[in-house]
Amino acid sequence: MLTIALPKGALLKDSIKLCQQAGLDFSLFLEESNRQLQIEDPQGLAKALLVRAQDVPVYVEYGQAHLGIVGYDVLKEKQADVAQIADLGFGYCRMSVAVPSASSYRSSSDLPAHGIVASKFVNCAKEHFRALDLPVEIVPLYGSVELGPITGMSEAIVDLVSTGKTLRENGLIEIDILFESSAYLVANPLTYRLNSYQLSEWVKKIIRN
Amino acid sequence: MLTIALPKGALLKDSIKLCQQAGLDFSLFLEESNRQLQIEDPQGLAKALLVRAQDVPVYVEYGQAHLGIVGYDVLKEKQADVAQIADLGFGYCRMSVAVPSASSYRSSSDLPAHGIVASKFVNCAKEHFRALDLPVEIVPLYGSVELGPITGMSEAIVDLVSTGKTLRENGLIEIDILFESSAYLVANPLTYRLNSYQLSEWVKKIIRN
């Protein structure tokens, strides 16, 4: 049976709406009382897994899910071996470099060599500064990255920015955009190539909307 | 001013109680309406940072916090350069290998060579299987690790077990314990050695209880 991995968090509601338009009802995942992480749609056509956004590419790469919906930011950071089928046109945000507004840095290349940059997106941050040929130390954090510059631990952060509210509240400003991100439909490469589970039919139904 | 990093989540309440016994009131962090991640105690004696458990060793290692409270599991996984001062005697849990109860595996060494083990604690899992000389593939997951064996992606998981309720609910059983864990008081090595901020006085007050 076709299995699709859906991401917890900001993209879940729109992901479930998209599935609904393709005839698959996984709205049980939106009910607060739900504790199940694996459900079948009421018509028994397909299964869905509810996992952390970062885990979507893992389940798709290992073939436990044939399709997945996940932000481009996660795909870029994890560099998982999945087929990127389509930009789904929701969940827009951007990966940015931000610094305290009181600092004198106005672009990434203003940062001091051997400065410290805190980020949840270590690979994206490394790639950005490597391309600039600027040797900075990337410190991996798991949450509240804005505390890095506030406490003085880091000169800058690389983080996902949506409305910019968190940055403003913490006295930070964006000085560079690494890339823009939105939700993507991804597939297991082998399943996609062999068209198992009538994958291409499902993909058409999901992305035609 | 002395700064202490406190972990969000399961250890927060007991950590704040311990600080209170040492004369430092950070109970504001327990109020649901609180959005501040950095506060001063009302007497102005010390500051506290509220961060993810995994980030506590980072802030302590880089010296933005002089003390920190964090689970031994995180210290072992991150191998951060911090001084482990004392076992604080709360937050008991264990790092275990678990498999589906229906499987035939009853110890780690029963697992097949080149089998797959899912874990949030990649380094701990690697070390365990390396010591057994059993080549398994460790797949990093960020949440709901129990889905690994349920979906058939992995033969086993390495995860933190407290009451065992999550394992039971998902038809998994523990087959090996890697180590036991509890909350630790950690310090920045240099601050501790130089006894800046009267660190040893504070440590005595915190651990005497």
UniProtKB/TrEMBL annotation, chains A, B:
Tagged with keyword Transferase: yes
GO molecular function, one term: ATP phosphoribosyltransferase activity
EC number from the UniProt entry: 2.4.2.17
Principal localisation: cytoplasm
Localization annotation: Cytoplasm
One protein family per Pfam: HisG
Protein task: Catalyzes the condensation of ATP and 5-phosphoribose 1-diphosphate to form N'-(5'-phosphoribosyl)-ATP (PR-ATP). Has a crucial role in the pathway because the rate of histidine biosynthesis seems to be controlled primarily by regulation of HisG enzymatic activity.
Quaternary data: Heteromultimer composed of HisG and HisZ subunits.
UniProt free text on domains: Lacks the C-terminal regulatory region which is replaced by HisZ.
Name assigned to this protein: ATP phosphoribosyltransferase
Species name: Cyanobacterium aponinum (strain PCC 10605)
